[in-house]
Amino acid sequence: MTTQADTVIVGAGLSGLYAAFLLERHGADYLLLEGRDRLGGRILGAGSYDLGPTWFWPAIQPELGAIVRELGLPIVPQYEEGAMMVERSGPPARMPGYPSYPASMRLAAGMTGLAEALRARLDPARIKLGQVVTRLHATGHAIDVHAQDHEGRTHTVRASRVLLAVPPRLAQARIAFDPPLPATWAAQWRGTPTWMAPHAKYLAVYGAAFWREQGLSGAARSARGPLAEVHDASTDQGPALFGFVGVPAAARLSAGQDVLMAHCRAQLARLFGPQALTPVHEYFKDWARDPHTATPADGIDNSAHAAAPGMAAESGPWQDRLAGIASEWSAAFPGYLAGAVDAAASGVKWLLRRPSSASPSLPPGNSA
């Protein structure tokens, strides 16, 4: 089955959703394809609790701050009142806390609220979930975007241009490009770490914020682990703590999730007291095991915020036809939520500056 759209956006994380939001404003024809059965990409929540990115900094990320205000999403500062806990080789020690600067902010309803607010402003007929893009074939003045659903059925969209809203390394590893990408471009993509991909997060929800009752902020740093860094994750749904797991991806896989979660509970009890042993709910998200986020190369990377690769080819068959708009393509904030917004805005500007062309034609009988 073949359909057509002037622009295909591959990936419905924040960058893909924001690009669609901007194109919708311009009355542009687009189709948004997402391999997962949900929107948001690396934005993932359990209710209002974040299992993906958590913070943004409106003081230095004004464009993202403006979008949050436009969408009417309430924000809350990261809770940082009180002392923090530090553990090295000996018992945990209580130390004076220090506020982040600029202030770290969260969405009151969790970052999923941002994805949902953008989705609510899009035409649902232009969003296709469960469509894994496997191949991009440049032919004539069109690009044939080949996608496969979870049952193995194929679907082709003929487009004039494609915006890649998936991480560069993931796109290079999972999508076949015909003709091949320029060698320098492909090498840049392979060498760009995917933010979040090597990481895992553990989150525990409690009936009371017992750490606050002890004059603690919920923040902790640990050289013992398994959590290397802990923060207060409380929302209106209830008090909570979350931490970044400091165990490498391969070791996490070997140990197993249940064992790791038991060690996380034990560590929180060392840091904040025995009440931490009995959470009401707990969650574990290992991004290295997410096939729509990570590649094997990401399992051994530290996923630093690397320098952005080039957004679009300057010559060759992909010139003026393909651009990368995921967060890693942002020159200002690569890997951050604000980077997704920045890269998407840059990609849409690039697209709208290209000479307009009629929608690619289909052979008779192929329109669906």
Q: Could you please describe the fold and organization of this structure?
A:
With 368 residues, the chain is an alpha/beta fold. 24% of the residues lie in helices and 26% in strands. It is built from nine helices and 19 strands. It has helices spanning 14-25, 62-70, 112-119, 168-174, 183-190, 210-213, 249-255, 257-272, 337-353; strands spanning 2-10, 30-33, 45-46, 49-50, 75-77, 83-87, 93-95, 105-107, 127-128, 132-139, 142-148, 154-164, 176-178, 200-205, 216-222, 227-232, 240-245, 281-286, 322-324. The strands form four sheets. Strands 1, 2, 9, 10, 11, 12, 13 and 19 form an eight-stranded mixed sheet that branches. It has a seven-stranded mixed sheet with strand order 7-6-15-16-17-14-18. Strand 11 (142-148) and strand 12 (154-164) form a beta hairpin. Helix 1 runs parallel beside helix 9 (337-353). The radius of gyration is 22 Å and the shape is elongated. It starts with a strand and ends in a 15-residue tail after the last helix. Residues 363-368 have low confidence and may be disordered.
Radius of gyration equals 22 Å
Sheet/helix structural class: alpha/beta
Mean pLDDT across all amino acids: 93
How is the main sheet built? 8 strands, mixed
Features of the shown structure:
26% strand; 24% helix; 19 strands; alpha/beta; 368 residues; seven-stranded mixed sheet
Ordered list of secondary-structure elements with their pairings:
Elements: E1 2-10, H1 14-25, E2 30-33, E3 45-46, E4 49-50, H2 62-70, E5 75-77, E6 83-87, E7 93-95, E8 105-107, H3 112-119, E9 127-128, E10 132-139, E11 142-148, E12 154-164, H4 168-174, E13 176-178, H5 183-190, E14 200-205, H6 210-213, E15 216-222, E16 227-232, E17 240-245, H7 249-255, H8 257-272, E18 281-286, E19 322-324, H9 337-353
Parallel strand pairs: 1-2, 1-12, 2-9, 6-15, 10-13, 12-19
Antiparallel strand pairs: 3-4, 5-8, 6-7, 10-11, 11-12, 14-17, 14-18, 15-16, 16-17
